[in-house]
Specification:
about 55% helix, about 170 residues, 9 helices, 2 strands, two-stranded parallel ribbon, globular, mainly alpha
Length: about 170
Amino acid sequence: MPARVARDLPEARFIVLLRDPVKRAYSHYWERVDNEVEPLTFAQALAAEPARVSGELEKMAADPYYYSRRHDWYTYRERGVYAPQLERWFAAVGRERVMVMISEDMYRTPQPAMDEMARFLGIEPTPIPAFERHNYRPAEPMAPEVEAELREFYSPHNAALATLLDRDLPWS
């Protein structure tokens, strides 16, 4: 898809928000539970992910119009491996056209983050109104052993991402 976007939108600029991949995975899981498409526990869903999405990346690569519901729904762990995804975008559109923002930075200081994004897009920064959380869903705490396993899994991926972005990450 990045190559098609680069071809069809040769002047576009892109903003990517990256969230702590452990929290992102857990949030994604609870969204699927709420949508009534995830019957497994989080630990079971993580274990089932490889079998559930086997072959889907290849199908998507072979057919740019193929939509993989299984990839959309069940890639809890995979989507948090950010560096390879960013590298594909950088290769396709050029690094100078992609701004990477850490979600936690935006949550902590929304106005400066929005100002920075506006400048990147070449538009005038404007004050943002007070906002409410609309997609917040309280969830039960993640099992400590599952969180520890995910943190260990993401550790080398987060190190690669920090190197790629040449910055420290708040969740590493």
